[in-house]
Amino acid sequence: MTTADELVRAGIRPVKRRVEVGLLSRRGVVGVDIGEKVTAGRRTGQVGIVVYVRRKLPAARLLASDLVPSEIEGIATDVVADDVVLHRALLDAEFPPARGAERHRQVLGGISLGPWRTVLLSPPDAPRPGEYAIVGTLGVLATARTRRPNVTCASYLPLSGTSGPHVTQIMGLTTFHAACVDDNWAVGDEMVHPSRVDGGTRAGDVVGTLCRAALSGSVDGAAVLLAPGRSYRPSIVDIGPVIGTAAAARGTVVRKRGRTTGLTTGRIASVDATVLMDYRDGLGVRVLRDQIRIEAVGGIIGDYGDSGSAVVDPDNRVVGLYVAGNSSGTVAFASPIGKVLDELDVDLITD
């Protein structure tokens, strides 16, 4: 049954979509959402358009063109100070890898995963100029959709591939920015677990190769084709078997298991978040729309290295793929799993 609150949000949605490009062009704005207006730390009960900014500044310090009006087309606005950052992690290739990293015999969700290749970074992308190894999280397992037999790889959308006899292909899903990293990525890039950051080696830890990728207006995702004979299980560490998928619903308590923070819990606050993401590395600034905003339930929801985690509901149904969060780890953003599967042209593997 549709609630009065959901009806209000449905009415705001088209207005938000019309004005969000203009709002995102204002200095310091990093996101536009639909949420409850908060005044002096208190919830007002009034639902409106929420504008996220890196730092709230007095009106006197802003140009008139950068001010957010108090209402838009009769809809109240709220300006909230927060940031949005990609939650992959990196390590200078000259430094020793992390100690005590997990090593799993089977490939399953919630484990560290990263490309074997390193990337050349310099400030502000990294603390100092040098070669860096990248790590994220393998979220969940998938397989190529049967309607597209033996599609083995793709670059940017639309997907392309070869045809032939149907072959069951097992893939691990993660994010584009954790697996592809920059504009030098290629189908066939080797992926290792543990990641290179966590002490993985090319000799024995290559779990597969980059097969598909999507960086679009609503999805940040990639698929890694598991190496032949590699043992796998359609389950997530600390969470259990994956049952299926579900549409994200506001108010749902969700969990994710990431390489860095492990098992954490949050609550879906919105399914309408539009965020401005700086992918740097030759990819530039991108806008991701219709993202799931998740607020931590006690402590933090995620941190650098958790990108790619599967976000699941209480029934172990996947609702999203963890993409980014704020610097403090109290807020996360995830791409809806349905859109991820569609753009990568895969189906989830369930228990």
UniProtKB/TrEMBL annotation:
Record SUPFAM superfamilies: Trypsin-like serine proteases
InterPro entries assigned: Peptidase_S1_PA (IPR009003), Peptidase_S1_PA_chymotrypsin (IPR043504)
Highest taxon, organism lineage: Bacteria
Protein name: Serine protease
